[in-house]
Amino acid sequence: MDEIIVISDDENEYSLTLNDSSVILEDFGPAVSEQQCRNEEIVDEESGLSVTYSKRGDVLPHARYDCAVHPFSFSDNHMCTPMENNMTFCEQCYCYICGKLASECLSWITPSICHCNAHKRSAYWKMEREKASLGILFEFHFDLLEIDADLQEAGCILHRFEDNLNKEYTKFLLGIKATIHSHGTCKCSCHTKRKKNSSCTLCSSGHMEIISYDYSGVHDLAYKLVCEAEERKPKVAAVLLLGIAKQIMLHKQPMANWQDGRDDRKCATTAVSLLLTRITDFLQMLFVSSDFTSFFSKKLMQFFQSLYFPVNCRYFVNRLNIFLWDDPLLVAVLKGQNVSGTRIVKGKKKVLFECLNVIQARKKKLLEQHKYRELARYLKAVKSENTLHMQNLLDEIPFYMCKCGDFNSAAESLFSARYPFCCTACRLSPVQFIVYLKILLSGQVPAGNEVDDSGKWETIQGTTPLKKSFVVKIALQTLSCNNQLFTDPESWEALITATCSSHKLTREGNFQCIAYKKPDEEFIQRHGYLSMKLVEELKMRQNFVYPQCFHDARYRDEALLLLVTEALMKMPYNDFPVLLNIVLAFRENMWALKYLLDGLNETLLNQFIYCLEMDLYRHSNILLTRLSPNDPQVLGDFIFFFLSQEHYLLWPIGNMIQDILLKNWTVHQNYYWQNHLHCKMNKQNPSHISQ
Description:
Elements lengths: L2 E6 L12 E6 L7 H6 L2 E3 L4 E3 L10 E2 L29 E2 L28 H12 L14 H26 L1 E3 L31 E3 L3 H15 L3 H15 L19 H22 L4 H12 L22 H7 L7 E4 L2 E4 L4 H13 L3 H10 L5 H8 L2 H7 L3 H8 L15 H13 L1 E3 L10 E3 L8 H14 L1 H4 L2 H11 L1 E5 L5 E3 L7 H21 L14 H14 L10 H6 L4 H9 L3 H17 L1 H7 L5 H12 L7 H14 L2 H18 L7
Parallel strand pairs: 5-6
Antiparallel strand pairs: 1-2, 3-4, 7-8, 9-10, 11-12, 13-14
Helix pairs in contact: 3-4, 3-5, 4-5, 4-6, 5-6, 6-9, 9-10, 10-12, 12-13, 14-15, 14-17, 15-17, 15-19, 17-19, 18-19, 19-21, 22-23, 22-25, 24-25, 24-26
């Protein structure tokens, strides 16, 4: 075999021609001395080619089938014995399977696996080469180009684990020779006698030798690696867990005379099921939360499907058949192009049905990416067998719509029901009700991903909060269909405070109360009557429509406050655990509280006063927390309201409030509100109050 290398005569020239070049011919002929090679000159007059120097070429490392010294005989899959002269090799011949020198290959001429016959033109020998290169990873059908450091690490761990597991499983199959009473004390009376070699018909069967099998050693070994895999990188963890599943699914429980049923780890059948449950649950989470390519994920799923599932493991066959992120049905749902979660594929109906573990993992992934609208669409469309947890997930949809700034859709989803569940508003807690009031009225949302009021609040750019009249209507509808909220004083307090507030929250996320000017009596009577009709309509139809006069610019907010107060009149006040919160919510607009008291009949008014007196006696700390000495005018007006009422049962309430403040505040703190109260009493001088 000759090699011709063209070398330029002039190193500075870039264009070469045959006439301007020198050629070195190398062959593998008989060795000659270097001096002889230099002296001999061969001239070809026709082409003008002259050979001035030649040297024997070095033999480089090569596969056995490429050897130029020893001929090679090709065959597709002959491995029983060496073919013809294939067993011979030169010093640079390498084994195609092992990648080692032929002289170091342990299977070079071994019968049934003769590596000397291997070559790259055979599909069989190519597969054998991949098996040798990939090791245990070959079972996953990975290509050589796919093997990276993570997969190599997983392969090494699995190889060691397989060896240790086989040893433990062999011990398990040997069993343990014992007696039934060796697992507990024999209480037979014959053991109290000091007779040797005596037989007892009562307990003799318990002392017969039996074989028991304890799988706990195998379980603990596999469980330890499962825990380690869950802490590793996603790709390593996925391969390790699938490798463990493949090994343990082949384990069987031998027939035994006696079996300890107190520990699930000791029985192979139950222990394998427990391990597979944990493995598949974690793999489901990995496929959703990790950045695996679709090709890699499908290859792992196909490997799991190719495993042999015994009868006790048939439940796990489809556990990893989940929708990947690029699935057409899932993509259409996330984009809002499919709202039903179903799709017809080749005449068959395909449903977006996923287990709870996958749904929660997908929810976590979308929340990390701040894709709240896509998450809401997914939760609306997905189906699951766990209806109770699905109800809790569906109740979070209004909050996710608020997080993306779609407050109208959030309000609508509060009252949208999905079979077999009722609407979300029916299950709102008081804390959630207050948070939604703040969100819908202010257009601000909590910074976190939970419906709570404990963190910071942030404004979503480019959004507009809902009108206060619409928010009040939603709140009243929620209270009417939710018994827990209807009897909760904090929910009513929040609604009253929201009605008396602007659209902006404080830095702490609280409402800013505004003192409305008292409307004229004609306005109060007319809108009070209309409010009563709206409340009655709300009870009958769970809905109502505002009259046109409620949208007038004059006294618009005052009309809404009258509506909320009218709804509060229908409450049985004995059901309120603390009524003081509601009374304090009116402190900026005492005219609305007067409208409430005037609208109560004698029985309800007596209940109201009695409950308020008991609250002042039991919960005086609420009064001290809500009232501030820095606002003496509001505080003085609040006390004067009770002292100036015509109903004599309200007077002691004003005195009780004064006593609580004088007892707990300093002289300096009490001075200003006392001064304002004194001036107001002197100015109006109610007839029933003595000097």
